[in-house]
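Researcher: I'm comparing several assemblies side by side, and this is the next one on my list. It has 571 residues spread over two chains. Same procedure as the others: predict the full complex and return the structure.
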Amino acid sequence: MKRKSNEKKLTAEVVLKQLLCICLSLIVLAPLYLVLINSFKTKSESARMQLSLPTQWVFSNYADVFKKAKLMTGFTNSMIYAFVSTTAGVLLCAMAAYVLSRKRTKINNFIYYFFICGLFFPVNYITLVRVFQWMNLTNTRLGIILVFTSAMIPFCVFTMYSFVETIPKELDEAAVIDGANPTTLFFRVVLPLLKPTLMTCFILQFMGVWNDFLTPLYLSSKSKLHPMTMSVYQFFGKEGSNWNYVFADIVLTVIPVVAVYGLGQRYIIGGVTAGAVKG
Amino acid sequence: MDKRKVYPQWFLILPLVLYVVFFLFPSLLGLFYSFTDWSKMTSKNGLNFVGLRNYIEIFTSNKNYANGIANTLRFTVISNIVKIIPALFLAIILYEGLRGMGVYRTIFYLPSIIPFVIIGILFTSVLNYKNGMLNGFLEAVGLGFLKQKWLSDLNVVWKSIYMVDAWRGMGYVMTIFMTGLSTIDKSYYEAAKVDGANFWQRLWHVTLPLMRGAIMINLVFGVTYGLKVFDIVYVLTNGGPGHATEVMTTYSFQLYGTGQYAMATAFNSILLCITAIIGILIVRGMSRKGEA
């Protein structure tokens, strides 16, 4: 008898939990659905911001926005910034984290914590503009890429450092005995073993750069250098009353990050600083 | 094996140079400039030292600058409480093996991959007084009296920002907690159950102590995010109504826009000091744990 009442209580509990999760899912999904469905409506219908299906499906919104919002420029720039800066950043940080983790001299420990401090500090964009003037980097893609790469160093070094520890040192020794020089040892033996943490860092930082708004806001005054976040914001400022266009623009801007997330999901979930979480 | 030869120190050169030139040096330079009258007029008038004038201006002027600092600190505390506590319970509920756990986890994580700018634009629509989805929903379920001018009422606007911020960030925090939970050995719970511990006792004596790492990560990311918050405030309210939702970074951006560069870097330097103090405390805690 006792066990039976216990089971009943359990099912009531499960139902409550399911209800909670379903409600929360709806809260998360409703605004996203709102964007999607209204991006297919006419201007006047989308202005009412209803969740109902469009009375008339206007697929041409997307073609219009694609031209009006200069999406191709934005997409190309975002792609260049995210891909180049993240590739460079992940590779450089892997090299640094490897040496810092393997060779723990006093100076290297200091350098490690020196990097980690950057997790907290804000970037000073105002003086960065000044540094750009001195280095002739004002309004260049290279400058923006270098800033993104530098800004990801603390997080990547922090994440990779603890992962390097999990790779046995005996491997290094064996490779050295086999006659590998230090560079081959790292690129041929160690780097392939770092793949999980490289992927986690790459995906998180790629999405981070893609979503960043503050850096281009300060550092690119020319619209031909704007990434998608900037073009979407400016488009909103210009065409804010045309919600059908704004929503279509949002959908097109979000598709690439959602795709990257979908492809790399298994590396993020569980991979988010797993080493540190265990610590 | 000779460590000096096997692990080449030159691997560190490029990251160090980039980090110093584009990250650390601008911050220190900002500290220097915050004691000058640097502005867009400097090319004409030259650069002069003014001592603490910019800082005095920030704390004593009638322009509410100090309020921006208070708002930043309040946002950091409240936005984290609002996200971390519910996310913890949500993670526990899902982790205890609810059907559809994987689907829920993906859905809850989804908002945190969307750019803040877009979330800002999206919620100016959702929170619109006349046609917005939120007021529409409240009316439809008979709670019309709860309708608010979400983004223009002084008493509500911060709550709206916390709400949007939690909508975006809670799934991310929850995911880190779930990773933390997955590292806890189930036998601890069985032992606790045998001892007759209830849910709260298990939470307090087993889950929380064994999730120190995950809690730490969430605090570090949450606090640094809160102190540096910009995008979501800028796009949702742009510091308004009036200057009610101004934070340090939005003030800094405005001052930069009007050419008062020294004042803008003074704001950044205050932010740098606050984050440095918190950072040093946390890094110290981490390195001490490493030695133990």
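Model: For your comparison table: Chain B touches chain A through 96 residues (CB under 8 Å).
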